[in-house]
Amino acid sequence: MSIAALHIAQTGLSAQERQLAAISNNIANANTNGYKSERVEFSSLMYQTLREAEKSEGSSALGVTSGTGVQVAGVSRDFSQGTVKMTNRELDVMINGNGMLKVSKNDGQIYYTRSGQLKVDPDGRLVTNLNQPLDPEITIPSDTSQIIIGRDGTVSVKTNASQDSQEVGKIELASFINPEGLKPIGDNLYAATESSGEAILGEPATNGFGEIQQFALEGSNVNTVEELVNLIEVQRTYELNSKVIKGADDMLSFASQKIGN
């Protein structure tokens, strides 16, 4: 039984190590624009049935089962709104509400992000701060003097030749039935999966999609105080599992000494 306890406690240590990694990642990204905090979900491992419950008189009506530990069932993400960071920069946008920006990469795939720190690349395209063009592409004229992004995603410009605004494109948003099923790939980007479902496309400020807010960015939704509380809980749980291992090891040592004598 002590050997079983060692194995069970080891699964507990492994689970808390994964939890600690998630907490560390959340805290490290506390100032990352558009970052969504992650949470580790646990489930119990299979149970061993040592004796079935019986109905006959004098028999145990409960039976005897033994758990075998814990496992990481998955890592979920909290897609709630992050903090509002006013920047007064005309190419900074945030989504107030549901939806994600669509961007493309060199591999030809479409990815999704909540980080709206945009800029204009040498070809005049609106791109993210890591040079991923918006999809569909929006091109800014070279003689632009002012860029205006409306709450409905309409992108208009004023040029040196004319102070009358002209529309050059419109930002399109995507949403998912199960956003927690999106696969994070780094660079604040997510890829659609079978779990997330296909992207539902739409215009900002319509059909349940959020509005576009210019001159602002969405900060991380990490609650650092909550993460510190979680860190203390992980430390205590890890310590308890370590004590179980020590206790089981002491029992095995004691039994070995008695049998040896």
UniProtKB/TrEMBL annotation:
First-listed, main subcellular location of the protein, grouped into a coarse class: other
Domain Flagellar basal body rod protein N-terminal: 7-36
Quaternary data: The basal body constitutes a major portion of the flagellar organelle and consists of four rings (L,P,S, and M) mounted on a central rod. The rod consists of about 26 subunits of FlgG in the distal portion, and FlgB, FlgC and FlgF are thought to build up the proximal portion of the rod with about 6 subunits each.
Similarity-based family: Belongs to the flagella basal body rod proteins family.
One of the record's GO cellular component terms: bacterial-type flagellum basal body, distal rod
Domain Flagellar hook protein FlgE/F/G-like D1: 94-157
SUPFAM superfamilies given in the database record: Flagellar hook protein flgE (SSF117143)
Alphabetical UniProt keywords: Bacterial flagellum, Cell projection, Cilium, Flagellum
The protein's name: Flagellar basal-body rod protein FlgG
Domain of life: Bacteria
A Gene Ontology BP annotation from the UniProt entry: bacterial-type flagellum-dependent swarming motility
Chain ranges of the Flagellar basal-body/hook protein C-terminal domain: 213-257
Organism: Photobacterium kishitanii
Subcellular location per the Swiss-Prot or TrEMBL entry: Bacterial flagellum basal body
